[in-house]
């Protein structure tokens, strides 16, 4: 049965539908990529989404103490590195900058000498969010810290707060003992789920390497984007630390068929959680819990 298109971004729905009609069914990872990150109509590209007036709250929006605490952690890491003259903080998915602003406030509150060495490199796909981040940094007097992420390896820290859970994931299931991928097709009035052979052998290899055996009928998500992301930051970070904050579990818990028989995929809109990614396409967040075993 086709899922309803209620409250969806019609241009984005048409764009995804057209791709399916031209090339056939697409992976859920491709669907999620377009729904969240399409450069014109994607969820993160059309508006600011986090905050009390948005769709969800992350820790920085809840209270600045999260950023203040991170400020002390970064000061400690700077000291452990021998107080280098230049300490670069590269943040993935900073949004409108709530975390970095509270972190900088924390450094000011503590009168940390790290402020004199700090450089800040935001990695943000959304031009709307990046523009607001730059404006807020300038208003707070920190515009001079802002740098474009470059190819030169950095000394400092990589920060990712609720970033990995929004990377595109493949959806798979086990039927008659066989691993199948759950693709996305068009059903005439909305998007539909279509099972088929895996689009890549990497999906089965991922489960095997994690020691995961899916139960009959179990549905779950596989994030193949974590490994290239880790490779990217390993290449970028010459000396320093990686700080990742996210929702997730070790593999044994993440893929427990009794705990998560239908996986961990969730949607968020207006601070309400849902489980139908085909509703409000382009107007709701889509996330999946992180496999911490794979990340480690």
Figure out the total of helices: 11
Structural class estimated from helices and strands:
alpha/beta
Gyration radius (Cα, Å) is 20 Å
Which overall shape is indicated by the principal axes computed on the Cα atoms? globular
- Kindly state the mean pLDDT as a whole number? 92
Tell me the total number of β-strands: 14
How much of the residues is beta strand, in percent? 15-25%
Low-confidence stretches: none
Helix content: 25-40%
Keywords, separated by commas or semicolons:
single chain; 296 residues; alpha/beta; 5-stranded antiparallel β-sheet
In brief:
The protein is α/β, with parallel strands linked by helices.
Outline the fold blueprint.
Layout lengths: L9 H14 L2 E2 H10 L5 H4 L12 H4 L2 H16 L6 E6 L5 H12 L8 E6 L3 H13 L14 E8 L8 E6 L2 E9 L4 E6 L5 H8 L9 E4 L3 H11 E9 L2 E2 L1 H4 L11 E4 L2 E3 L10 E3 L2 E2 H4 L1
Parallel strand pairs: 2-3, 2-4, 4-9, 10-14
Antiparallel strand pairs: 1-6, 5-6, 5-8, 6-7, 11-12, 11-13
Helix pairs in contact: 5-6
């Amino acid at each position: 049965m086709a899922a309803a298109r209620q409250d969806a971004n019609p241009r984005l729905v048409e764009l995804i539908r057209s791709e399916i009609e031209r090339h056939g069914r697409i992976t859920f990872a491709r669907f999620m990529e377009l729904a969240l990150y399409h450069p014109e109509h994607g969820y993160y590209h059309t508006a600011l989404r986090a905050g009390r007036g948005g769709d969800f709250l992350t820790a920085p929006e809840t209270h600045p103490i999260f950023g203040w605490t991170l400020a002390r952690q970064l000061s400690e890491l700077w000291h452990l590195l021998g107080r280098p003259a230049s300490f670069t903080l590269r943040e993935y998915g900073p949004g409108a900058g709530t975390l970095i602003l509270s972190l900088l406030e924390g450094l000011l509150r503590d009168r940390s000498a790290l402020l004199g060495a700090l450089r800040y490199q935001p990695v943000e796909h959304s031009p709307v969010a990046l523009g607001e981040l730059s404006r807020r940094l300038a208003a707070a007097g920190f515009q001079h810290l802002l740098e474009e992420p470059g190819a030169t390896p950095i000394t400092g820290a990589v920060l990712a707060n609720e970033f990995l859970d929004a990377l595109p994931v493949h959806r798979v299931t086990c039927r008659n003992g066989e691993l199948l991928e759950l693709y996305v097709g068009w059903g005439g009035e909305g998007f539909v789920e279509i099972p088929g052979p895996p689009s890549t052998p990497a999906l089965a290899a991922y489960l095997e390497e994690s020691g995961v055996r899916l139960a009959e009928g179990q549905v779950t998500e596989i994030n193949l984007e974590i490994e290239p992301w880790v490779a990217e930051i390993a290449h970028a970070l010459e000396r320093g630390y990686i700080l990742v904050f996210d929702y997730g579990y070790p593999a044994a818990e993440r893929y427990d068929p009794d705990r998560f028989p239908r996986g961990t995929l969730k949607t968020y809109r207006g601070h309400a959680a849902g489980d139908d990614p085909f509703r409000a396409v382009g107007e709701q967040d889509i996330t999946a819990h992180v496999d911490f075993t794979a990340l480690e």
